Amino acid sequence: MCILAALAATASQPAIAQTGSTDAAQPEQAQAAPAGQDAKNDKRPSTDNIKNLSQVTVTAQKRSENIESAPVSVSVVSADTLAQKNISNAADLNNVVPSVNINDTMNGRTPLSIRGISTVSNEAAVGIESGVAMMIDGVPVPSDSVAANDLQDVERVEVLTGPQSTLGGRAASAGVINVVTRSPTDFWTGGASTTVTNDGEKRFQGYISGPLSKVLDFSLATWGGHTDYPIFNTATGQATRTSKFGGRGKLEFKPTDNFDATLALRASKQNTSGSNWVYSYVTPGANLFPYVNGVGATQAQSFPGIQLGADNRDYNTAPQLYSDARDRQATLTMNYTFANGNVLTSTTDFQSEKLTNVQPNFLTATYFWNDIIGVPYGTPSPPAFYNWQQVHLDMNQSTEEIKLVSPADETFSYVTGVFFSRSDVTGTTTRYFLPNLYLSTAESITSTYDWYGRGTWKFSDSTSLIAGLRYNRDKIAYDINQTAYSSSGPYISDAANWSSAVVGDLTLQQKLDESSMLYFTYSRGYKPKAYNTAQQLTSSDPLTPVKQEHINSFELGSKGVYFDNKLVVNAALYYTKYQNYQVQEYAATSYGPVLHLDNAGGAKTQGFELTTQYSITPMTRLDFNMAYTDAKFTSYKNATCYSTQTAAEGCTTTYVGGTAVQVQDVSGDTMPLAPKFKATLGAQHRIPFSNGYDLTLAGDYAYRTKQQFLPDQNPMTQMGAFGLLNLSTTLTKHGESADYSVSLFVNNVTNKNYYTDMTDWWAGLWAIPNAGGGFTPANAVIVQRARDSQRYFGLRLNVNF
Fold first, then answer.
1. Rounded-to-integer distance, Cα 101 and Cα 553, Å
2. What are the pLDDT digits (tens) for 546-581?
3. What CA–CA distances, in Å, run from 210 to 7, 34, 40, 191, 264?
4. Is 377 exposed, middle or buried (0-12, 13-18, 19+ CB in 10 A)?
5. What is the tens place of the pLDDT at every residue in 519-534?
6. In angstroms, rounded to a whole number, what is the distance separating the alpha carbons of residues 526 and 550?
7. 393: closest CA among 126, 121, 594?
8. Which residues contact 14 (CB under 8 A, 6 or more apart)?
9. Nearest 5 degrees, angle CA 546-CA 635-CA 755?
């Protein structure tokens, strides 16, 4: 950073081969301005045709490159696609990018999966990587943060599938999702839109960008609104609602041709009222916590007027459930271009988030524990329990990256850099349920010191060898003050651990002609060690972290543009093997869920990805994308059993430290969040009229096969196959100074119900009282319905200038 500042102060000669930042190119750079217009002064989308993939630039590999020239499997979701499909958060990418599966938690960490690989991280254990690196403008977002869930002020979303550890770092063992936001422009432009739906959604967003002087450009964006989910509390008569408000400002300073600096500031807040869960199943005859008085709370008492089942959207509970998240981010990026075209970039970033989450415990209508022990309503302190717990997370992260990028058109080109990150997450949990009392504060500190490099050697105009290497030095540390956990405590435990990893990749790229190529890549990746900061302490002894996860991956891909740029076909065949695969899962017990973080012996994922676009005419385009994913545990002999699993179904008893533990062997079973087949089919047709009007008709259908949500293979947490149909029409008026449009859309036309999450956390608290005494274990499953799990329609108004 200091080096760049000094270079800026002494810069006097313009660059020869390359100017400006190597960061995200504007999508307008790939679009021709309409005939008769100056591209410098009118950057609105062209009305001449519908853009295809061959015109898209991506930046997730540390330099700007055309998507068809990058030897990696990558999908891009444009701002137009986000608007057309009414996508406002990351979980909506599930129905756009087939290789991606994201759990929409609304009020906490969002577990991510690419190609069936995910640790399924939960906010109870802080500091654990999911395996998918979330980035905003190339800067990693803390894995515990909700900041990247909100897709506002977005130019495009880049999804790199498969291990990306060489350039993506410690969090990219399964892939990278890079959210690219709008950059300042040296011309005046802007836009605004508002969306309303019949089911209560109201959103707005707007931005403006332009020059403040010859050397200073700016952009300013704001967004806000609320969305009601199809989840309803019959006790209050209210639907679960998420409200979001935020803004982002950028200043770009360009004092010379070979130096620029951009300061980006972002602030946002997200509030959710209501639960994100409802029950879909409880074993008939089972009662809630019958272990004290032999009865507990019946299902009739727990779910008055509610019919449990796959289509249930209702719950009944009196506690006021909510979450409140507030994010801040500041990023300074400086670029200096040398006379030979090399670009030196410094990116300094600070992020913070404060999240308070009042969560439901058991989602029932009665204060069952108070009824069991005879505590009068309103008793303010333990042993009274009012069916809620509070989790507070305080996250702070600082990163610094310095990279040097050479021009891509040289015989040997390279990207090299150093990266530092420190992430500090403190989580405090308060739960006054006496059988599972939980009063704990856990701090996790993660630091990484990295060097990376990747070089491209062009043997000829058609053949290139690409080699990359990265060295990571990681430090993980924790400090847990567990005042009480069930009947144990207080305990105070802390420890730290250093580890290193060397990863890399090797790619052979062969161009078949000017518009098509083949590539083969071997890559090694890893996921760092981690502590389970949510586990129940039995002493103050230091915890043992889970081992590093190691990855070997092979990918054969092809990319091509055919028939005079009308047809784009990209395909990838892959095989990836994971050693010491990190798995997070809950064990159902009679007093509540117990979180486990373990190393499975191994896992693998193999499959095929296909992306196609066919421009039938300049006004008509068809898209077809698909992913076949075969993701399985190759060795996992000590997975937890689900609550009703019998010995005949594979559940056995083993002893750990003298304690009996129920385990099963799930080797060969499907991994969570890994449907075998997903596909999307889309069509767009633009009809031009006179006087500057045009009408765009669009439709898309997304299909996926059945999917298991949990490692324990609970048959009740498997979601069946389904498909979603979305339709929209947009009328646009192209004016001399601005474009105006009105869109009508219907999402989930056929009204298909589906979930973004399913779990059996609370199954152990439910049991069937036996007539002769004792209890029979029961199964209990809660689900999170997707925002578009019921049909809705809406209106969107938009202006761009």
1. 20
2. 999 999 999 999 999 999 989 999 999 999 999 999
3. 26, 21, 12, 12, 15
4. exposed
5. 999 999 999 999 988 8
6. 4
7. 126
8. 256, 257, 258
9. 80
